[in-house]
Specification:
By secondary structure, the chain is an alpha/beta fold. It is built from 14 helices and twelve strands. The chain is elongated, with a radius of gyration of 23 Å.
Length: 361
């Protein structure tokens, strides 16, 4: 017998639906959604994970970590999905334009881990400034020298430079200010007045920021303009007493150049929570992680019990808004593209009578 529930595929590393089910229960809509949990490997394209479930059809896909390519977008549309909800802030791994051409809305979860990443950013900075990890390495090797390595300075004597000024960078500011740090920001779209109201100074150019800051922290998305934003030239501008922090995206840094800068003391050290190629690390990335003046964490800045719940809640909110409430999701990324595709007749045969119409499967 056909069901009038909306069939939603939930791709996660574990395939566990416990948290998602509890959220749907709390909203009183679990009886309207058939949630199918699918354990999914990060390296497997979304269209190749559990192909039988995808072929059975669905109304929406909620995806934790794997991406969707331009070539895979038609398969998502063929499943009947009207929504691809990415459990992430960044969407450089999601072909949103290709999904739009197929009539599939894409959403993300902006701000779900703002506090967590801001804290991790400061933690990496303080670790390097106080030589916490490197001191531990010394003790493990049997050495006991409180004065080993580079000189330590109080944060109150240092300048923090933030590259871009979104939610996370803004959340870093009050912590840095509480430590007594001066904060300078390079954000091309922000005026000096807007930045001053946030308690920070404006750098007119990236070069200006790099030469003024003792610590440079990246908070930019990975877009063509920011790919390898920090290379050999930029690292040289930072100077030999500086630290680089990256909790944004690995591709914003030229890792070969960074390794060279560490090995030649062009900069003092780095704290990274993201790499260009994660899990299966490149030889260059491994060399960076093993450098005594580097601290590398496994893309864990977002992680907390609270952020995990908020992330799932935001992803499922998009499902609820579209499939149950019949309205455009709050965090829609490509609504204009979908509207244009529909107006042009693309995917009209699968669009249904309206955004709120239920599929019967």
């Amino acid at each position: 017998m056909a069901s009038n529930k909306h069939r939603v595929l939930l791709y996660t590393l574990s395939g566990d639906t416990t948290l998602a089910d509890s959220i749907l229960d709390g909203w009183g809509v679990r009886d309207q959604i058939e949630l199918v949990g699918i354990p999914h490997d990060v390296f497997v394209p979304i269209t190749e994970g559990a192909p039988d479930e995808l072929e059975r059809g669905c109304d929406a896909i909620v995806n934790e970590i794997a991406g969707i390519s331009e070539a895979g977008a038609p398969a998502v549309a063929a499943s009947g999905a009207r929504l691809f909800a990415s459990l992430s802030i960044g969407v450089n791994h999601i072909a949103t334009d290709a999904l739009a051409r197929e009539g599939v809305l894409a959403t993300n979860c902006p701000g779900y881990c703002t506090e967590d990443v801001a804290l991790h950013t400061v933690a990496l900075m303080l670790d390097l400034m106080r030589k916490v990890t490197s001191s531990n390495r010394e003790v493990v090797e049997g050495r006991w020298d409180p004065y080993f390595g580079y000189p330590v300075h109080r944060p109150s004597t240092q300048t923090l430079g933030l590259v871009y000024f979104g939610r996370i960078a803004r959340a870093v500011v009050p912590i840095a200010r509480a430590l007594g740090m001066r904060v300078v920001v390079w954000a091309p779209t922000k005026s000096a007045e807007e930045l001053a109201s946030a308690g920070v100074e404006k750098a007119d150019t990236l070069d200006d920021l790099l030469t003024r800051a003792d610590v440079v922290s990246l908070h930019c998305p990975l877009i063509p303009e920011t790919e390898r934003l920090i290379g050999a030239r930029e690292l040289a501008l930072m100077g030999p007493d500086s630290f680089l922090i990256n909790t944004a995206r690995g591709g914003c840094v030229d890792e070969e150049a960074l390794l060279g800068a560490l090995e030649t003391d062009t900069i003092r050290g780095c704290g990274l929570d993201c790499l260009t190629r994660e899990r299966d690390l490149s030889p260059t990335a491994l060399a960076i992680a093993r450098h005594p003046n580097a601290v590398v964490t496994p893309h864990t800045a977002f992680a907390s019990e609270e952020s995990a719940e908020e992330l799932m809640r935001m992803g499922l909110q998009s499902v609820r808004e579209l499939l149950i409430e019949g309205r455009l999701p709050t965090y829609a990324l490509n609504a204009d593209g979908v509207a244009a595709a529909m107006a042009g007749g693309v995917a009209a045969s699968r669009a249904g009578a309206g955004a709120g119409e239920k599929s019967v499967r």
